Design the sequence.
């Protein structure tokens, strides 16, 4: 008798992923789906943002809602207040969350909205042609910073995890990565803790993922993973930045 040792999560549809080769969205989708499935059957509603993640509603096997650019947390707030029993999450890129949606996201955290935000930081605008994002590193070349991001002209890259850790009603804030197997395991653990806090009604939680965009970075998938490890983690250190549960432990 054959024993099943691995299978695709039931929280993923059978639709083939349409992301570029080497893009980490597929890995993060997989981790999100597995974490959700491990909580058992429950009403689950995801909010897809604008950007590469706009197609998330094709891949997650739960109710999904499309939000206008940057408005995912505002939409999620309305859904959670109308359906407090549901597990509600947003899936947003850095252009969507850290730029046009920064106000909606910060104020949702400040109100302590009981939602979970999955934030994909690949340091660039992926879908629209590789422009400089709020998270683009100093010296990093993009289509709108062909000579590299310049601190004097463009300011410093925004560190979202550090900002949100200062918000009193943010219950859980972590930055993770998926550039190697060890990082992938830690990333899933962070997702499960964030979802657990929502189930326990502790308030707002956000997990920031350092992710790769080989096509817009002009790299091979392997080079992109190495670039995350050698460059992104230096400016965006991995770790848990706030864990309200530690107070009770």
Sequence:
């Amino acid at each position: 008798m054959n024993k099943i040792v691995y299978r695709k999560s039931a929280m993923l549809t059978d639709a083939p992923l349409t992301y570029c080769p080497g893009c980490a969205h597929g890995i993060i989708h997989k981790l999100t789906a597995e974490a959700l499935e491990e909580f058992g059957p429950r009403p689950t509603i995801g909010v897809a943002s604008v950007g590469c993640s706009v197609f998330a509603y094709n891949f997650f096997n739960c109710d999904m809602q499309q939000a206008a650019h940057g408005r995912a947390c505002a939409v999620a707030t309305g859904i959670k207040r109308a359906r407090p029993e549901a597990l509600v999450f947003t899936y947003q890129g850095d252009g969507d969350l850290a730029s046009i949606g920064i106000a909606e996201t910060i104020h949702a955290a400040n109100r302590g909205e009981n939602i979970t935000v999955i934030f994909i930081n690949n340091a660039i605008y992926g879908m629209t042609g590789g422009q400089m994002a709020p998270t683009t590193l100093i010296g990093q070349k993009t289509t709108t910073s062909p000579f590299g991001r310049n601190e004097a002209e463009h300011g410093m890259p925004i560190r979202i995890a550090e900002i949100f850790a200062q918000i009193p009603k943010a219950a859980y804030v972590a930055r993770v990565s998926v550039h190697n197997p060890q990082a992938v395991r830690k990333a899933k653990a962070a997702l499960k803790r964030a979802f657990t806090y929502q189930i326990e009604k502790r308030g707002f939680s956000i997990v920031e993922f350092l992710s790769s965009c080989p096509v817009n970075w002009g790299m091979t998938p392997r080079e992109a993973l190495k670039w995350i490890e050698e460059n992104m983690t230096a400016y965006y250190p991995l770790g848990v930045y706030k864990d309200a549960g530690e107070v009770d432990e």
